[in-house]
Design a protein that fits this description.
This protein is α/β, with parallel strands linked by helices and 242 residues long. Helix content is 45%, strand content 15%. The chain has a single domain (8-232), classed as Rossmann fold (3-Layer(aba) Sandwich), CATH 3.40.50.
Length: 242
């Protein structure tokens, strides 16, 4: 089992939902954790609550990534785990009802931002000869549902990018993993203006703590083992697709 005490972790989208749950789980495992987000107040409050370091940034901003990496390396000298969790539904609905701006924002938040982070983390981890990158995708990357075309396309792109990145980084001792969750106990539904889920069903969906526990377990795997992809379904969710 890999020891996470004093390891250096970055979790994007860490002010709420899966990101906050993940960051808290790594803090409890003894790691030094940086969390990013665009809402400075919420990010700072979450960081204080869980014991992480906040860094206000938009993942689609390459210069912000440069500043973040510079800060982390200046304080710890290394990067052990990058969790690319940031993402958003933006607008869930038929393709004919999308706007150009919504499409561009979805690609930036769900695909481009993670790629920008991976590019920088890959260079650092290759030099170290170790590290783990986890890209949080979605079951939408492999399942088709009406109204989810733009979001699904972004997440499918992230899935294939992650698969290719693993082939590039394995020779350097760096592991890369895709985690593909479905229904969760997060604010995604509200943010995407979707109908609220039944409270009784919601309690049985993936919680931020569930996600955090699983990601810590992935990071604790022996360094010679890698989980290529994990798809996580709530037992209450129908799994049929078109």
């Amino acid at each position: 089992m890999t020891n996470l005490i004093e390891s250096t972790i970055i979790v994007t989208g860490g002010s709420r939902g899966y990101g906050a749950g993940t960051a808290e789980a790594f803090v409890k495992a003894g790691a030094r954790v940086w969390i990013t987000g665009r809402d400075a107040f919420r990010l700072t409050e979450t960081a204080r609550r869980i014991g992480a370091t906040p860094f206000v940034a938009d993942v689609a901003d390459g210069e912000a990534w440069d500043r973040l990496m510079a800060e982390v390396l200046a304080q710890t000298g290394r990067l052990d785990v990058l969790i690319n969790n940031a993402g958003e539904g933006v607008k869930i609905g038929p393709a004919s009802e999308q706007t150009d701006a919504a499409i561009e924002q979805s690609l930036a938040s769900n695909l481009t931002g993670a790629m920008l982070g991976c590019r920088r983390a890959a260079a650092i981890m290759q030099k170290q000869g170790s590290g783990l990158i986890v890209n949080i995708g979605s079951a939408c990357s492999t399942h088709a549902w009406p109204g989810w075309s733009v979001y699904s396309a972004a997440k499918a792109g992230l899935l294939m990018f992650t698969r290719c990145l693993l082939t590039e980084l394995r020779p350097h001792g760096v592991r890369v993993t895709s985690v593909l969750p479905s229904w969760g106990q997060t604010e995604f539904t509200d943010a995407a203006n979707l109908p609220p889920r039944d409270p009784a069903v919601l309690t049985q969906c993936i919680s931020p703590a569930d996600m955090g526990q699983m990601l810590v377990q992935i990071a604790q795997l022996p360094a010679h083992l890698v989980t290529e992809e994990i798809k996580l379904w709530p037992m209450v969710q129908p799994m049929a697709q078109l």
